[in-house]
Each structure stands twice: as structure tokens, then as C-alpha cells.
Amino acid sequence: MISMCAGDITVQFDRNGSRTFKKTGLIDWVGKPIMVLFDSFKFNFDLEGRIQRIDGFPSPQSWDWIQRTMANDWIYYDRVWVPGALGVPGALSVPAELIGDSAWAVNGRADLPALHGHDGLQRPYVRAAFDAFDRLIHAFRNLLVRMPELRYESGEAVQDEDVRRCWEFLGKAARNDRRQLQKTADRLHEIHGQMMVLPPDAIRVDYRVILVKVMDGCINACGFCSVRGKAEFAVRNREDIDRQIAALAEVYGADLYNYNSVVFGECDALAAPEIEYAAKRAFEGFHCGESYHTGSNLLLFSTNQSFLDQPDSAFEMLEGLPFEKIYINVGWEAATDEALSRLGKQQTAAEVFSGMGKAGTINRNSRKIKISGNFILAAGFECESIVNAIQNTRYCGQLYLSPLQGKSNREQTLKDFYAIRNEVSTDVRVHLYTMQRM
Ligand code: SF4
Asked: Which member of 245, 281, 313, 348 has the greatest number of CB atoms within 10 A?
């Protein structure tokens, strides 16, 4: 690690974090940020000088931090929030148990019922962190005017190469105030549009994904859907895919090094005709094979119908892609005709069973392709039918449960979660779906 001081600011390069996105190791930050120590906070900047994470809250919140996405959403990471198991036998209510990560990612917008009432982003110490960030940008600008001599933290004079590196970073970071960060997010949305929810498997990479749309909208129009977006169903052509990849590579710039995962949008990407072309172009254009992070991932949604329609050759094509893992998430949502009809979901229970059977077979046989599924949790929906479907179809793999907004409270969600999780075999990993967007 190289640590340099300029006035009351310390800039640290090469303070490398986890390469696997795990938050449980001794090093509790991820990727290769540039760190700045200022005031009482630790600021992680990306390799283009954009703030990415702030740590340093006072005890007892010293384990928590806030993190910014490239869509300029701030998320509060909480390791110890206890949602209250409220009499559910065997309930632990820790984030790893419920969502598959060791910290809750609270966005204050589309959180699980277990996180309702979490006011992390409004807390005074978070406001203090934002104020300190504004002052830090100001301080960077002052430094660029004064250009003081830099010293290593040890007191020695700084070598020319590190001087150049430090001033280059300060020049970039000084431009990225809150207004500029929003402009960058707007530019991203100009390039690919919004995606109201990322595939649930994106939690594996802490939602650090680059989005490329290979299609828009969804062929379905489910009655309960709040994530479909406004776009009509349409597929994107090669020219548009190339345009997105070139423009995104420019926006992410040097920080591409911190990404190894691509999401193909939007809600039914498996139906897009240009998956193979887009995957090869994205892998190359974003240098996914040369990322700081271990492995490389492609993530996408599929409707059950598109998934069932794919012939074996489509999965052979996916097996041949350069990404190390391919995660496809299928919306099954319910396992009886009655529940599907109440949800306004245009599929039958028999089709759900076929999809689950096919997914289980793929998951057992492929090391690269992993199919996960979603089910809805809501008052009046029987969890036994989901357990029954898992057992009857021999589904194995990841299952995500989404509490239906306004129809499932914290206690009901936890009860349903454990009712399913405790009844299925260990090769079905059940988690609640934490929804983040791009
Ligand atoms: S398939 Fe999924 S994205 Fe499409 S309308 Fe239904 S719930 Fe929404």
C-alpha cells in the first residue's frame, strides 16, 4: 500500500480489498479502491475518482457503512439489524441466513419487510458523512490550487511516479462532486435506460454489475408486477449493443478493473436473439477476464416460457461463452393455478413444474449455468405448494422469495421463509430477494 499526505488528507493507493465480494474476511472492503482518510471518515473512491463507499461511523454503528451505485443510489449496509424473529421456531434473523450476504443492503425504497422502519440513510451520522464528502471535494479543489508538497505517511518525500498518480487522482476526484455524480448516472441511463430491479443473483457480486440491454420490457404483463418498467417489449440489434458497450466502457473507464459481472436486461433477456454476440462483445469490451475480481459472471432474467422454449442448443451456446458463470433467474412466482391466477400471472402450475424440473436438471449437470427461481410470498398464499413443487420436480439450486408489497408483513415473511427453508433439502438454498436497481 502507498499512503501519502497532502494537508489534512491522506490518500492511499493499492489498499486491495476482497476479490470475491465476501464481506466476512479480515479485509472488509471490496475490490481495488483509492482510499482517502479525512475528518473521521474513510472514503473509498473508484479508479475514476468517484466516491463509492464511506466508512467510519461512530460506535455502535462502526460496523456499518454507506455505498453508492453507479446509478447514484446510496445504500446503507447494516451488519447487525435484527428484524425480530417473533416466535418463529429456529429463526436466526441474521442477514447471512435470510439473504445470503453478511450485511443488509438497505436502499429505503424497495426493502424487504424485515427492513421496514430502517432509517439508516436518514441518520445524523450519515448526514455528517455526506457533509464531510462535500468538504472533501472542496479540500481537493484547494489542494489543486495550492499544489503543496506531498509526503509519504512515513514522512519521506514522495517519488515522482507516485506524485503524478496522486495529482491525477485528485484532479479526477475534485470534479466528481454530487452534481457530477448525478450527471454520470444520467449518462448511464441515457446509454441503456433504467432497470427497475437487478437479478437476485447479483447479490453474489454486491450488485456491482454493468448493465447492457439486449431487449426491453417483458413479454408478460403480470398483475402484481412492479418492476417491468415502461418500455414495450422489443429486442435490441447488434448495432445498439455495440453502441452501449462502447459508451459504457468509456463511462466506467479505468474502474472497469473493479467489475467482472455483466447483467443483460431487461426482464426476459433469454428471449433476445443476440445473446451470444452481446456476451462475447461485453466480455471483451469490459475486459471481464482481466478484472481484479476472481471469475466472471453473466446474469439475466428469463420468463418461464422463454426458458422452456430454449432448445438444448441454446444452453450449449451459453456453455461456450467466455464468462465463468451464467446465472439465469426465472419467475415462477407460484405453484398452483389458483395462486397464479390471483397474481395475474399468465402461466399454469404445470408449466411452472416443467420449468422447475428443467432447471433442476441443468443445475445438476452444468458447472457454468445456474438457474434460480423466484416465488412470491403473501398472506393467503400457501407455502406448502412451493415445498410440494420443489419435492415433485426435484428442483435444486437457489430460490428467491419476494414478499408481495402491501400483502406481506415482517412476521409473515419470516414465518413463510422458515416454513419453506426448513422443509426442503440442502441442495435448495432459499433466500429472500433483496431488490436493487440500476
Ligand atoms: S414476467 Fe416478471 S417482469 Fe414480466 S411482467 Fe411478469 S413479473 Fe413483471
From this structure: 245
Residue of 267, 302, 330, 400 best suited for mutating to test ligand 1, as the one with most atoms within 8 Å of CB = 267
Amino acid identity at 84:
G
pLDDT digits (tens, 9 = 90+) for 163-196: 999 999 999 999 999 999 999 999 999 999 999 9
Residue numbers in the chain where pLDDT is lower than 70: 83-93
Phi, psi angles (nearest 5°) of residue 424: -105, 160
How many other β-carbons are positioned within 10 Å of the β-carbon of residue 190? 10
Q: Cα(389) to centroid of ligand 1, in Å?
A: 20
Measured by CA distance, the residue closest to atom 7 of ligand 1 is: 225
pTM recorded for the entire structure: 0.96
Alpha helices in 220-298 (DSSP H): 238-252, 275-285
Sequence-ordered alpha helix ranges (H) in 311-405 = 312-319, 337-343, 349-365, 383-393
List the domain boundaries for the chain. 2-81+118-182, 193-432
Of 308, 313, 343, 348, residue with least CA distance to 328: 308
Q: Could you count the other beta carbons within 10 Å of the beta carbon of residue 266?
A: 29
Q: Which CATH number fits domain 193-432: 3.40.630.30, 3.80.30.20, 3.40.1350.10, 1.10.10.10?
A: 3.80.30.20
| Atom from ligand 1 closest to the CA of residue 219 | 4
Give the chain's radius of gyration (CA, Å): 23
Side by side, which strands form the sheet with 9-13?
104-106, 74-78, 65-68, 51-55, 41-45, 34-38, 9-13, 2-6, 151-152
- CA neighbor of 252 nearest in space, from 220, 217, 208: 208
